[in-house]
Amino acid sequence: MLRRFSLSGPLACGILLTACLVTPAVSLRQIHADDEATTPEDTPDDTIEVPEGNDAETLLTFLQSLGRMRAESPTPAGFRAHFRKLLVALDEVLQRDIDQETAQLTIRMMSQCFDIIGQFGDRSAAEQKQTFINDLKQSERPILAQQGRILDVESQITSLDTSDKAAVKSLMDQVISILEERPLTKAHGSLAYGAMTAIEQTGDGELAMSAAKVFGDALRTSDDPAFASLAATMEGSARRINLKGNPIEVAGITVTGEAFNVEDWKGKVVLVDFWATWCGPCVAAMPELVALYEAHHDAGLEIVGISLDDSRTQLEEFLHQKQLPWPTLFHEGAGQGGQDHPLATHYGVSSIPTAFLVNREGKVVATDLYGDALSEAVTELIKTEE
Predict the structure, then answer these.
(1) Of 28, 45, 116, 324, which is the most exposed, with the fewest CB atoms less than 10 Å away?
(2) Cis link prior to 287 (omega < 30° from 0)?
């Protein structure tokens, strides 16, 4: 899968103690004692030694090492114990006088750990996470309170009923309010992206365009170029939502150096395929795509591949081996994972493989196609437009 913009850190989590909060917080060890869903095997019998001091570089290296640690026992109880052990270590980090980046990463890791513990069968984890969030929101330390507010809205996103327009609008308003905070952090970007993804699911193109503009305008006030890139991707997502029934714009240079413009294929059924050689599902789908092309090319099917590779050499080697019968567009300087590919940004493509299907009039009839749905849609369109 391709993630255009990833702000998540390593997996781990924790809970704040009284030293960081206005109101008392429940200690981790008390949670262990009170948790009816916890078995003796869930409780860690050892602790992780945390480096002394508040040096940011040392602590960030430590946090990264926590994200790489593996559970000693690959069982549900073993995983619960492992992530609760990480909670204790991160709890110690968060109580210190740490810088903003370290605090933010620690909090993100903590939140993720509660989710993981819940996924492994601890029914109390969700309630504990909400307690953690509420305590953060009441913290006397501004960065902690800010991150608590962000986590609170993110939790609402995960349970949002996208068919409830009032709930979606309320969520959007909350996100807009949080994006007015300064300075903007990576967590703000993650929140905006998550909210935009939820708004996409409503299928309301007008609302998506509105959200993309407001979120994008707020993000672009930051000096960090990553936020401008994220804003462009969200605007692209809104453009993609409104793409059905409208002409598509696909132009560029093929990997062999030839100019390409999809308008030259008017009168053809066109499949625009976003993919990359490093994407396992993309490579696995190639034989089926070739079979689809061979079955329908004489009836008017054309395919153009949009490679999100960042290595021309790797792409050329793949194409030489596979001898794909359609043109492949390549953009120099797309960045690692194709994150700066202009066509992917223009249409907010956030995962691959995905494809757009264009009818003989040059108008898009489907987006985000892959797998069986892709083959069925192409076959049906070819039959109806013959």
Answers:
(1) 45
(2) no
Give the model's pLDDT for residue 266: 92
Q: Going by C-beta distance under 8 Å and a sequence separation of 6 or more, which residues neighbour residue 162?
A: 168, 198, 199, 201, 202
Which amino acid is residue 55, in one-letter code?
D
Q: What is the pLDDT of residue 7?
A: 24
Residue 1 lies in a domain: no
Q: Tell me the Ramachandran region of residue 362: left when phi exceeds 0, alpha when psi lies from -120 to 50, beta otherwise.
A: left
Tally of structural domains, the chain: 3
Same domain for 279 and 228: no
The pairing of beta strand 269-275 with beta strand 301-307: parallel
- Compute CA 240 distance to the chain's CA centroid, rounded to the nearest angstrom: 17
Does the reported pTM lie above 0.85? no
pLDDT over threshold 90, residue 35: no
130-136 long-range contacts, CB within 8 A, separation 24+:
130/155, 131/15, 131/25, 131/26, 132/14, 132/15, 132/16, 132/25, 135/15, 135/16, 135/21, 135/23, 135/25, 136/16, 136/107
pLDDT above 70 coverage of the chain, percent: 86
Number of H helices and E strands in the chain, helices first, is: 14, 7
Residue where one domain finishes, among candidates 212, 241, 270:
241
Element housing 345 (H / E): helix 342-346
**Co-location of 172 and 221 in the same domain:** yes
End-to-end CA distance of the chain: 34
CA distance 145 to 110: 15
Same domain, 215 and 328: no
